[in-house]
Every structure is written in structure tokens, then in C-alpha cells.
């Protein structure tokens, strides 16, 4: 398990380093009109963070489950 954590930590740090080297234009540009920009990684992290909280709450809340919306913009 330590190997998995070490690998995950390495790649998180690597991605952060790579993003710091890029300009705003580079992270915002779409390679093609139907493709996403590199900024999608930020959205995915934010979404994962909110969903983690939801997954934990759903285990303990009474039914029906009430999902708290959040500003996705």
C-alpha cells in the first residue's frame, strides 16, 4: 500500500510542477473544438472532493438522501 501512496504522491506533485510551467493560454487552449482543455483536471479534482463528501454522508443519512448542490461554475 505504501508503494501505491508513494506513486500517487509522485504523480500529483509531477502534475503540479508541469502546470506551473504552463501559461494560462496553454492550460486554457482546447486541442480541438470537441476536446477539453487541461483545466479539466482542476474541475475533476473539485468534483471528486465534493463527491467524496457526498459518498460519506449517504452512508449515515436517513432516506431519502438529500444531496446539497454546489456552484459548479
Count, helices? 3
Kindly estimate the percentage of residues that lie in beta strands according to DSSP. Answer: under 5%
Q: How many domains, as an integer?
A: 2
SSE pattern, N- to C-terminal: HHH
Mean pLDDT: 85
Basic shape: flat
> Runs with pLDDT <50, length 5+?
none
The number of E-state strands comes to 0
Kindly, what is the distance between the CA atoms of the first and last residues, rounded to a whole number of angstroms? 36 Å
Structural class of the helices, strands and pairings? mainly alpha
Describe this structure as you would to a colleague.
This protein is mostly helical and 73 residues long. The protein folds into 2 domains: 1-38, no CATH class; 39-73. It has helices at residues 2-21, 24-28, 40-60.
Write a brief structural summary.
The protein has three helices and no strands.
List the helices and strands and how they pair.
Layout: H1 2-21, H2 24-28, H3 40-60
Protein traits:
mainly alpha; 2 domains; 73 residues; single chain
Amino acid at each position: 500500500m505504501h508503494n501505491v501512496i508513494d506513486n500517487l504522491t509522485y504523480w500529483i506533485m509531477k502534475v503540479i510542477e508541469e502546470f506551473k510551467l504552463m501559461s494560462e493560454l496553454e492550460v486554457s487552449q482546447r486541442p480541438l473544438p470537441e476536446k477539453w482543455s487541461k483545466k479539466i483536471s482542476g474541475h475533476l479534482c473539485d468534483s471528486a472532493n465534493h463527491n467524496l463528501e457526498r459518498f460519506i454522508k449517504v452512508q449515515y443519512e436517513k432516506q431519502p438522501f438529500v444531496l446539497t448542490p454546489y456552484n459548479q461554475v
